[in-house]
Amino acid sequence: MTARRLLLLGAPGAGKGTQAERLVNKLGIPQISTGDMLREAVAVGTEIGVKARDYMERGELVPDEVVIGVAEERLGRDDARAGFILDGFPRTVAQAHALDEMLERMGSGIERCVALVIDEAAVIERLLKRAEIEGRSDDNEETIRNRMRVYQEQTAPLVAYYRENGVLAEVDGMGGIDEVGKRIEEALGA
Ligand code: AP5
Ligand code: MG
Questions:
Q1: Which residues contact residue 90 at a Cβ distance below 8 angstroms, ignoring those fewer than 6 apart?
Q2: Of these residues, 91, 112, 126, 183, which one is catalytic?
């Protein structure tokens, strides 16, 4: 049986969003991207968007209490009951603990954490290319470097956290989208 409560971990530009979309099509479970939800909140100008905007602009993490609320509300919806692909959440040890607690209340837990491994030069190249296409406001070189630093300091420790929990699969994120996708499927037994 393929794991269906999944988490994609990886540096900015590692391919979390791209690979989550691929898995949505393959497994028929929703992608839950806190980055996408926060960008939407900023665009609409909700209270959460107002709180998040400046952090996102600088490439800093939005405070845990804001993001945890967003994730909890989304995971509580009906379509997440049969499984989900978390993309960009959790990003701190405190968020990982909060996630474990919320899933435990629902009687479940993370079954597999796929950590995408990629080198920094490749990430910067990918994100600068995306900047030309999509114009995401945090895809400029200075902010990308800050997002990388924040990832190393605050999010990278989660690799060890999920390894200790026995659910980690490290996957090489270099190469083409389908190539990486196939490695992920293998790691999931999909
Ligand atoms: P978020 O939206 O999560 O951004 P990110 O982590 O910086 O990651 P990206 O979306 O840039 O990269 P990705 O890994 O999804 O790669 P993608 O598939 O797009 O977060 C943005 C901000 O929101 C944060 O900085 C923070 O402020 C806030 N935030 C969000 N969640 C938070 C949380 N939990 N706590 C606190 N704050 C939070 O690929 C990148 C590009 O590369 C694309 O153009 C893609 O087409 C291309 N590409 C992908 N794979 C390949 C490949 N194999 N070969 C070539 N190109 C590829
Ligand atoms: Mg993304």
A1: 7, 71, 96, 98, 99, 158
A2: 91
**Where are the domains positioned within the chain?**
5-183
All residues at 6 or more sequence positions from 121 whose CB lies less than 8 Å from its CB, including other chains: none
Question: Looking at ligand 1, which residue's alpha carbon is closest to its atom 51?
Answer: 177
Q: How far apart are CA 51 and CA 77, in angstroms?
A: 23
16 is catalytic: yes
Q: Which of 16, 22, 39, 74 is catalytic?
A: 16
Query: Ligand 2 center to residue 26 CA distance, Å?
Result: 18
CB-based contacts of 1, cutoff 8 Å, min separation 6: none
The per-residue pLDDT for range 41-95, each reduced to its tens digit, is: 999 999 999 999 999 999 999 999 999 999 999 999 999 999 999 999 999 999 9
pTM: 0.97
CATH 3.40.50.300 assigned to domain 5-183? The reply is: yes
Q: Is 145 a catalytic residue?
A: no
Instruction: Say whether 91 is catalytic.
Output: yes
